[in-house]
TrEMBL record:
Gene Ontology biological process: polysaccharide biosynthetic process
InterPro entries hit by this protein: Acyl_transf_3_dom, Acyltransferase_3
Keyword Transmembrane helix attached: yes
Annotated source species: Telmatocola sphagniphila
Record keywords: Acyltransferase, Membrane, Transferase, Transmembrane, Transmembrane helix
Name of the featured protein: Acyltransferase
Xref: Pfam families: Acyl_transf_3
GO molecular-function terms, A-Z: acyltransferase activity, transferring groups other than amino-acyl groups
Transmembrane segments: 12-35, 74-93, 105-128, 161-182, 189-207, 219-237, 249-267, 287-305, 317-335, 341-363
Domain called Acyltransferase: residue spans: 15-360
Recorded GO CC terms: membrane
Length: 413
């Protein structure tokens, strides 16, 4: 039997997936990647390595045997985020139009991101001061991170998950451009856009891989662009689901389009040496995420509303940003104090969870509301005051899900 909320809000499945995807990513970093890539964390200036590393938790062996080189839990969570973004961003864009959409997105993304970046930098400064080393980043690196352009300038990310945020911003710009050019609603427009991106990405991989091998830094931004385009193509798969959800495309068109765009995404992934060691597992993981998303979409009307998962989804954006840096430091400190793996992981998760809750209420909600009010001023006034029964507003990763059917809409932020 359908729940009351589910019956009124069929996009609850996307909110649910958002919360679950965030949990998977946090698990991937704190309970999986920390143990398997411990030395890399030192190279990234995140922690002082433990020598010897305490005994790995038992579940790591399962991943060693079944996940490595097959699928990665972090990739599953991230790819789900990408599909959700492709699904819900068109709703916000078509509500606010280009200028209002970009303004609202700025207020959704950057205030929280800059807050967490500041917290991470302060934590790293304290951590490395206590451990006898100086702060590992200069002002140029911090500013490049704040602008989400660190790789293009051959600089490190302070927070290892920021690369996905940079892709989100690129996708917003892509969607706004498609909307302005009239390419956003028709299957021909979406397919042609994906085709151009695929050809461009493949060409960059073909002609500039040698630059990557030889370390020719003048071509590095192009190599980064070619790599990023692969992910932007994948996000358009979620847009195809949305067009079917809105009944703008037939089932046949939607299925063929998702498969075609997956093919256009798959083609250039084999042609970029930057991610050559990761793409085999990435392909399997992203394809699995496609089927997982499709399963949740298919049964969206039967998924019950779960308040704790709704709250988790609401704080998923700040939690996603604070858990790697802060979580790694807390986890390392707890292990140094003699705690075993699972209590240390629990302390790291609870600490970052509480920090994310504080950021959500003190920063995210306030700037979200401000961005919505400003975007509303730029929104064209409808000629018909009656709201369409299918009009919905959904904001991915930092926002709300509302349906006009409810006098008191379901809060998602």
């Amino acid at each position: 039997m359908e729940s009351k909320n589910t019956a009124k809000d069929r996009i609850w499945f996307a909110q649910l997936l958002r919360g679950l995807a965030c949990l998977v990513v946090v698990y991937s970093h704190l309970a999986w990647g920390y143990w398997l890539e411990h030395e890399n964390l030192k190279l990234a200036n995140l922690v002082v390595p433990l020598d010897p590393l305490p005994e790995m938790p038992p579940h790591i062996d399962f991943h060693m045997r079944h996940s490595i080189n097959h699928m990665t839990p972090g990739g599953l969570g991230v790819s789900t985020f990408f599909l959700i973004s492709g699904f819900v961003i068109p709703i916000s864009l078509e509500k606010y139009r280009t200028r209002g959409f970009l303004l609202a997105r700025w207020f959704r993304i950057f205030p929280v991101f800059w807050t967490t970046l500041s917290i991470n930098c302060l934590a790293l400064y304290w951590y490395w001061s206590v451990n006898g080393n100086g702060f590992p980043y200069n002002l140029s690196t911090i500013l490049a991170n704040a602008g989400l352009v660190a790789p293009q300038l051959q600089l490190r990310w302070v927070d290892s998950v920021s690369w996905t945020l940079a892709l989100e911003v690129q996708f917003y710009i892509l969607c706004a451009a498609m909307y302005s050019l009239g390419l956003f609603r028709t299957w021909k427009g979406v397919l042609s856009t994906a085709g151009v991106l695929s050809l461009l990405s493949f060409s960059i991989g073909s002609y500039y891989n040698s630059a990557f091998i030889l370390g020719n830094v003048q071509y590095w931004p192009l190599c980064i662009l070619g790599n990023d385009l692969c992910y932007l193509i994948y996000m358009l798969v979620g847009t195809c689901f949305y067009r079917f959800y809105k009944q703008e495309w037939s089932l046949r068109t939607s299925v063929l389009m998702t498969l075609a765009i997956l093919g256009l995404w798959y083609l250039p992934t084999s042609n970029h040496l930057m991610q050559a060691q990761h793409f085999p597992a990435t392909r399997r993981t992203y394809i699995a995420s496609y089927f997982c998303f499709g399963f949740f979409y298919l049964f969206r009307g039967y998924i019950p509303y779960v308040r704790p998962l709704n709250f988790l989804a609401n704080i998923s954006y700040p939690l996603y940003l604070v858990h790697p840096v802060i979580g790694y430091m807390i986890l390392t400190t707890a292990l140094r104090q003699g705690l075993t793996a699972y209590p240390a992981i629990a302390i790291a998760f609870i600490s970052t969870f509480l920090l994310a809750v504080a950021i959500h209420y003190l920063v995210e909600e306030r700037f979200n509301q401000l961005g919505k009010r400003l975007a509303e001023r730029l929104r064209p006034r409808p000629t018909n005051s009656k709201i369409s029964e299918t009009e919905t507003h959904v904001v991915f990763c930092q926002g709300t899900i509302q349906t006009p059917e409810e006098k008191q809409p379901l809060r998602m932020s």
